[in-house]
Sequence to fold (241 residues):
Amino acid sequence: MFCRVIEFINEQMAVLEFHYIEALAGKWGASEPRGVPHLEKYVEEHPEMFVQAVAWVYKRTDEGTDPEDMRLTDPTHIQNRAERGYRLLGALKRIPGRNKQGDIDRDELVRWIGGVRSACSELGRQKVGDHALGVLMSHAPVGRDGVWPCESVRDALERIQADDMSSGITMGLFNSRGAHWRGKGGDQEREMAEPYRKWMNALQFSHPFVVSSILKPMFDTYERHAEIHDSEDEIQRRMRH
Fold:
């Protein structure tokens, strides 16, 4: 009975967080959102809510028709629903697939992702669903070995090997960088690239897909930006003289 009461309270809290999601979570990619912890746990237990948010935000990419209960005709209602779905997807930071101890379990995570991917595919939204999953996975913590992403997430990504998830991860990582400072030339970009170099070296043999589709593109992009800033500073130096 006590567990049922707690479950009911958590569900009601999730409903409230969803109702006030704009105030609690802010814009997608906000650096310091207040968070929606009950809603995140609810989505973990009900992955169909994640799928529904994807369907609200993105149109089908095939010739199929959505189920009747998902169809709207009023443009204002369609827009409002899309905005709610967008905020929900942006508010989620907690990696699902947790065990009873609260740790991310690789097999549970693979199962959760698989269910979402299958449902998104049935609704003609496989690619955008994978991309949204990737943005969520970009919030994975660093592993116990000091390497990002953590062991369970990197294992799951290596097993699934979905390119659109990888693109979502890289987008999520770039959007979460926060404020930038401009030092000398490309110093900042090289500083941001260095962890990716270390993680690439650590995972190059055990997780080649994670390295080639996520870590290396991130490293290469920061290095390229560093070279651009070096060139800009050199041009400005010459103009001053």
